[in-house]
Amino acid sequence: MSITRLAALGHEEPTLLPLAQRLLTVAESGLPSMLLPGGEAFAFTMAGRQTAAGSWTLEQRGTSTRYAAITALGVRFLPEDRQRAVLGGRTAEEFTGLLIESLPGVTNLGDAALIAWAAAETGHPKLSDALARVDDLDEESRPQYTVEAAWVLSALATARDSVDVERRFSAARDRLLRARIGDSPLFPHATGPGLVPWYRAHVACFADQTYPLQALARAHASDGAGDPEALAASEACATRICELQGDGGQWWWHYDARTGGVVEGYPVYSVHQHAMAPTALFDLTDAGGSDFGPAIRKGLGWMTDAPELAGDPEPLILDELGVTWRKVYRGDPKKAVRAARGLGTRVAPGLRLKALDRMYRPLSVDRECRPYEFGWMLHAWQGGRI
Q: Are 149 and 101 in contact (CB under 8 A)?
């Protein structure tokens, strides 16, 4: 018998269940404040500023189409009345309709793919229109950023039951599988040369791992006969990032896509800990992959027990504001550590430059919060059964 992910968490590690429930409450309370006036779009970020008296204020900055689509993907798991409370009176399907209407002006492949994915998940009647826009923007002969290519595959895998997308689906699946370098289990930042400068073409981020492993797991699950090659690739990637997970549950930020090692660990992003890693690994398990529950739970625990902030009274979760602060980082000027390690590992794979860890310790907190963090959180913990 299947059980909800929250119920499974309560069974496996009861002390973490209140944390997950608390985070979900924060997500629902915080998302409405991120909705822009008019209720048709979400801010890019909410920036926190502390007053002289010690209180916090939040400021909406920018607009993000992709964050709005991710929010719809997560909010769809809520009961209808709670969907409307988050989305300015609209259901996830109705809000997705607004995003579909905006597609003629969308020029980014990733944004269009996420809207199509949301359309497929919500059963929107204009799914074919959304997929057509993805097709317009996706030149199969050109390399794409891996994250966006993964979103295309997830959208097509979800749409397979409703629309004939088999040719495009096969091309998207094969593109992701071909993107890997040699026998490395990890994915690069782009599916081919030309998008990333040569000196950092080997550097891939955490998102470059979670979205492809999720998409390939979904591809396997969408095939009635299964897709062992896609499942194996997803499983190998998941296994490797779990092997590299930090002692404190940290999901590291930059990897060497050639060797499958870590280039630079920081920043540690809250969204990786409570949302992105769980949603990808849960989807893999749902598709028939291994149980990565221990790594998910270890990562979740970092949110209230981050070793980087030991002794620091500032929390990462601010319930009264409806935010989780975005990341813990080194505070190094112009991301100097990442640049140095990227260049160093280009010529000497595995080079650590350990002196940099002593010079730039990860003690800084980035005080902002973005809608997609909560969208994926809702997707991770409210969706699926295991």
A: no
Nearest alpha carbon to residue 123 among 149, 100, 105, 102: 100
| Residues 307, 75: Cα–Cα separation, whole Å | 31
Residue 318 · residue 358 · CB < 8 Å: no
3-state secondary structure (DSSP) of residue 289: coil
pLDDT in tens, 15-37: 999 999 999 999 999 999 999 99
First to last CA, the chain: 9
Q: Residue 168: which of 131, 143, 193, 199 has the closest Cα?
A: 131
Four-residue CA torsion sign, 110, 112, 116, 119: positive
Cis-peptide, bond into residue 349, ω within 30° of zero: no
pLDDT in tens, 338-377: 666 656 566 557 655 566 666 667 779 999 999 999 999 9
Q: Which long-range contacts (CB under 8 A, 24 or more apart) does 85-90 make?
A: 85/28, 85/32, 86/28, 86/31, 86/32, 86/35, 87/35, 87/39, 88/32, 88/35, 88/39, 88/40, 89/39, 90/39
What does the DSSP 8-state code read for residue 12? H
DSSP output for 319-351: TTTTEE--EEE---GGGHHHHHHHHHHHHSTT-
Count CB neighbours of 292 within 10 A.
22
CA separation for the pair 28, 124 (Å, rounded):
23
Tell me, yes or no, if the pTM score tops 0.70: yes
